[in-house]
Write a structure and sequence with these properties.
- With 309 residues, the chain is an alpha/beta fold.
- It is built from 10 helices and 14 strands.
- The strands form 3 sheets. It has a 9-stranded mixed beta sheet with strand order 1-2-3-4-5-6-7-8-10. A 3-stranded antiparallel beta sheet has the order 9-13-12, with no helix packed on it.
- Helix 1 packs antiparallel against helix 3.
């Protein structure tokens, strides 16, 4: 038989459970402590190996927290992550350093549970967060609460030590959530000061040209983002042109120059963006070379039909 990932843990109701760093055991114990439905933690790798030797394993359609890539990726899909389960998940994540990718697909996230998670994972090792296919269950205001974490900067003291460590997030996916321009505008504002997010996936939402303009304001200042996906939105030729304009040579406005110079002066070491890839039906962009402000230069811009260059 295939081995269960979750270890049995006795929970003393008179004492609060202290997570031990074993994600499966901690999640199981914390679910019991908080009265959450007992969802097992299952290993895709282990069950695949069990199938190969003829062992019988439970159906994949049953609710589970799936671990893949030797326990580095955790995925919750197609079952309701209620407040009690989210609390247990946060507690288990806080004690482990192994999980770097956290994915929610149609997990019934609510405004309350997403806010809880957004605050809690700042202190974890999660570098990739996917909040996908929660159409209709999340308000634009709640989605925008991810922005303050994205915009957080590391501040340095006079002796060069960090006063505040930034959220280690490198990849954020917000696919298929049905949001529109208000979230895009908030994300664009966050991109102005974000110094570590590398990939942003906004595919299959309802962003229009107005939202594209907001993203452009952020892209003009951002020197780190390398991949932006906008497939499946409602961006027209005007919005596509605005985004493409950030990939060509352009002059910064006075207030943008001020912001850029302040950012440079605060940095102990400045690292320029080498590449920005925009995934959009009619635009694909190439290597970007960024000299000192106030100018940015594009080495080449190619359309999807093979033109340009």
């Amino acid at each position: 038989m295939g081995k269960e990932t979750t270890a049995a843990v006795e929970v003393d109701k008179d004492e609060l459970y202290v997570p031990m760093g074993d994600f499966a055991a901690d999640f199981d114990a914390l679910c019991k402590e908080h009265g959450a439905f007992a969802v097992p933690v299952r290993s895709h790798d282990a069950e695949q190996a069990a199938r190969e030797v003829g062992d019988v394993v439970p159906s994949r359609s049953l609710p589970a927290v799936w671990l893949t890539d030797e326990g580095r990726r955790a995925r919750i899909a197609s079952w309701l992550l209620d407040t009690a389960s989210a609390t247990a998940l946060i507690g288990a994540l806080s004690a482990t350093q192994s999980i770097t990718v956290l994915s929610f697909w149609n997990a019934g996230l609510t405004n309350e549970t997403l806010t809880m998670l957004a605050e809690a994972i700042r202190s974890t090792s999660v570098s990739t967060l996917c909040v996908d296919a929660n159409t209709g269950s999340l308000s634009p205001t709640t989605l925008s609460r991810l922005v303050p974490a994205l915009a957080a900067e590391t501040s340095g003291s006079d002796d060069g030590t960090d006063l505040e460590s930034p959220w280690p997030l490198r990849t954020l996916s917000l696919r298929s959530n049905g949001f529109g321009d208000d979230v895009a505008l908030a994300l664009g504002e966050a991109l102005k000061t974000n110094g570590y997010l590398v990939t942003l996936n906004l595919a299959n939402n309802r962003i229009t040209d107005a939202g594209a303009q907001g993203l452009v304001w952020g892209l003009r200042q951002n020197r780190v983002l390398q991949s932006l996906s906008l497939n499946g939105n409602k961006i027209g030729d005007k919005g596509a042109g605005l985004i493409a304009s950030t990939l060509d040579e352009f002059a910064l406005e006075h207030d943008e120059i001020v912001v850029r110079r302040r950012a440079v002066s605060k940095s102990r070491e400045e690292v320029g963006r080498a590449t920005l890839k925009v995934i959009y039906p009619n635009v694909a962009c190439r290597t970007v070379r960024l000299p000192e402000p106030p100018h940015m230069h594009l080495q080449s811009l190619r359309s999807s039909n093979g033109g340009g260059g």
